[in-house]
Request: fold
Amino acid sequence: MSQIYQTTRVFLRVYYAYMVEYRAELLLWVLANSLPLIMLGAWTEAAQDGQLSLSPLELARYFIAVFLVRQFTIVWVIWEFEKEVVEGRLSPRLLQPIDPVWHHVAGHLAERLARLPFTAALVGLCFLLYPQALWWPGFSRLILGGLATALAFILRFILQYTFAMFAFWIERATALEQLWLLFYLFLSGLIAPLDFFPEAVREIVLWTPFPYMIYFPASLLMGLPTNLGHGFLIMGAWCLLGLVLNRWLWRRGLKHYSGMGA
Amino acid sequence: MSMITCEHLDKVYPIAIKEPGWQGTWSHFFHRRHRLVKAVQDVNFKIEAGEVVGFLGPNGAGKTTTLKMLTGLIHPSAGQVRVAGHIPFQRRSAFLEKITLVMGQKQQLLWDLPALDSLKINAAVYGISDRTFQQRVGELTEMLALGGKLTQPVRKLSLGERMKAELLAALLHRPQLLFLDEPTLGLDVNAQVGVRDFLRSYNQRYDATILLTSHYMADITALCDRVLLIYQGQLIYDGVLSGLMNRFAPYRQVKLELESLLPTTDLSLYGEVQEVSGREVRLLVRRENLTQAVSQLLANLPVLDLTITEPPIEEIIGRVFASGSVL
Reply:
């Protein structure tokens, strides 16, 4: 156990140093993911006439929560992994007695820590400009929302890392992620809350992993009614399915790996 | 038990074929054609613990592919491999802790951070305690003459310093078995000598087994008693370096200093003219003709000085591969 603790501590410390090496890039990354704040402006304006099922204030809170969830669930492992496979940079990692995925996990977690002050500043600015939107979700919702956000990150990471495995065969695995992104944008609740979807579509979408990456944790955080048991169960099921598929593809992919360029 | 055992090792790769031009591009888009390349064919050898073995061959001969199979990075298409008592591609932790592979410019160090940070990651991965870490880093830093360089970002290091830092990272867990693929590639002469000295002392100090590929014959002659020669995926020689010279290089180099300049045509009567630099001439003469050629040179030409040496090994290996005379 102390070995795991020691490894985790060193990995996080070193990758944190790596992430804060380029401060301007960090700030730009945070700003680049501010689409929910743009949607906030658009939807609160559209909700002024009272035709939508959520009020302008609820929508403002929803998109601030979406922005927060997005900041904690950004994943880029597929781009890194594809590069490693295509350029043969996976080879040095395969020679070490640790699964290469832990380098990526540590990188993502360290980046979350590095991003935190910028995220907090931007959220603070939002509340300063729109003080009515400031809310306290309550202790239990905060814990559950935090848990759902952590699970959303795990789910997104596992699924994207599973797509990344295809780099062993098709070399341009990121194209799969680009296609996935189309569904993610519309079905995750990033562009619009699922409450605006027709009931039948919403029922179907709730069985897919997409709403659990944004909509579910954001709804928990801002106080929309949610089916907790169903939500966490579906998230767990998709995580498990992704994990099994991921490990199967990893083993098969390694047999296919040629260490190109190395 | 041998440290490395390869029996009937094969590796076959499918390679996509594409003709140039529009037609080639379109036909490649709709119908991919592949051909199978036999990168390694029926390779057999054993290496004992503590040996330093040179792995020679022209580009594309199968050296790196063989190293990748020995380290478990790729699966063989056929044949058996055992390295340090393990089947490499199973990638067991006990196996990975015993080996290292250094691949020229392929870096494991994090580019934007000081090398020391990457070394700390390696220490954590291999479960090296802080005390042992300090002691090993100190020792390796001294052996590699890297003092003061480990706290600089890797991107700010010179090529030679980076290569040495890579070596340090690769050896921190004190592996018993070193696979080195062009470890001195791109280094200046001083840095090459430094890396060679380091590898020699590492081998002696820890009784480590080393399998080394290099385009610099000086690496091979300085470090390896035994060489493996691979050509078109097949092992064509396994033995001592001097034996390789006798078998594939039946030449001696004759250096002359003449009293006056002579035309090349006059010199070529006695052997193959390698170089004419003013009054200094370098000839390659077949060994069986050596006595006769030297007598004639001394009798017929205005020779001031004459020395007979082994030709540079890189020249001979180059000639062997260029002429295809290995088969």
Chain B has a mean pLDDT of 87.
